[in-house]
Automatic annotation (TrEMBL):
Stated name of the protein: tRNA (guanine-N(7)-)-methyltransferase
Keywords: Methyltransferase, S-adenosyl-L-methionine, Transferase, tRNA processing
Highest rank taxon of the organism: Bacteria
Function according to Swiss-Prot or TrEMBL: Catalyzes the formation of N(7)-methylguanine at position 46 (m7G46) in tRNA.
EC number: 2.1.1.33
Catalytically driven reaction(s): guanosine(46) in tRNA + S-adenosyl-L-methionine = N(7)-methylguanosine(46) in tRNA + S-adenosyl-L-homocysteine
Similarity annotation: Belongs to the class I-like SAM-binding methyltransferase superfamily. TrmB family.
GO molecular function annotation: tRNA (guanine(46)-N7)-methyltransferase activity
Gene3D superfamilies: Vaccinia Virus protein VP39
Binding site for S-adenosyl-L-methionine: 64, 89, 116, 139
NCBIfam families: tRNA (guanosine(46)-N7)-methyltransferase TrmB
Length: 235
């Protein structure tokens, strides 16, 4: 149930629910690993998720929206064992592959959510509770008539900001110039956020060395597009 601290959810979603057959390994991951590692957003009980109970420890919680096939996410979670790392994704094979990658790396601090991140943040995450939110290379919806489907809109940024603890970060990356500019404009207008790198040229964050190069970045480089990172902090 919504209250004054929970912005209304968008009627236009930012993703397409893709199909796709799972490999034998991905299906095994769903059968064997999902019961302990994953939950479905639409099946969560009312109210906030008890992340301490789910992870079996108290630690700062970071949510990554759109983990794709999990190559980057598994490495990021493995590199930050001090975090309770939550990956949110709608693509079934992607979650299966992420579980396989995490298993191979011996990752213990990762949990998975299957479903809409906006619903998760709105209905199942306490205000002021997250150490960070990451959104790396979201669907750019490059055609102008589809820009309304981009996830980074004022309502969404307000929602993210409300869920961050003071000092918590919202880290975005995209290889589409006009989407990066939209992210910068929308986040700069959010009163609960400040740009950590406002003093840098254009306000862009230097590309963090710890963020693995994704297939999207490699493709962008081939196609002559420059990737931008943006890091905003909850005031």
């Amino acid at each position: 149930m919504e209250n004054e601290d929970q912005p209304r959810m968008r009627s236009v979603v930012s993703y397409v629910k893709r199909g796709g057959r799972m490999t034998v390994g991905q299906q095994r991951a769903w059968n064997e690993l999902w019961p302990s590692l994953g939950r479905t957003v639409g099946e969560l009980p009312e109210g906030p998720v008890d992340f301490d109970d789910w992870f079996g420890r108290q630690a700062a919680v970071l949510v990554e929206i759109g983990s794709g096939m999990g190559e980057t996410t598994s490495q990021l979670a493995a590199a930050a064992p001090e975090l309770n790392y939550v990956a949110v994704e709608v693509y079934d094979p992607g979650l299966g592959q992420l579980m396989l990658r995490a298993e191979k790396l011996g990752v213990k601090n990762l949990r998975l959510m299957h479903g809409d991140a906006v619903v998760l943040l709105t209905s199942h995450v306490e205000p002021g509770s997250l150490a960070g939110v990451r959104l790396f290379f979201p669907d750019p919806w490059p055609k102008k008539r589809h820009h309304k489907r981009r996830i980074v809109q004022p309502e969404f940024v307000s929602l993210v900001a409300s869920r961050l603890a003071p000092g918590g970060t919202f880290h975005m990356a995209t290889d589409w110039e006009n989407y990066a500019e939209q992210m910068m404009e929308v986040c700069s207008a959010e009163p609960l956020l400040r740009n950590r790198h406002a003093g840098e040229p254009g306000g862009w964050a230097p590309r963090p060395e710890w963020r693995p190069i994704t297939k999207f970045e490699n493709r962008a480089d081939v196609e002559g597009r420059i990737s931008h990172d943006l890091i905003f902090e909850r005031v």
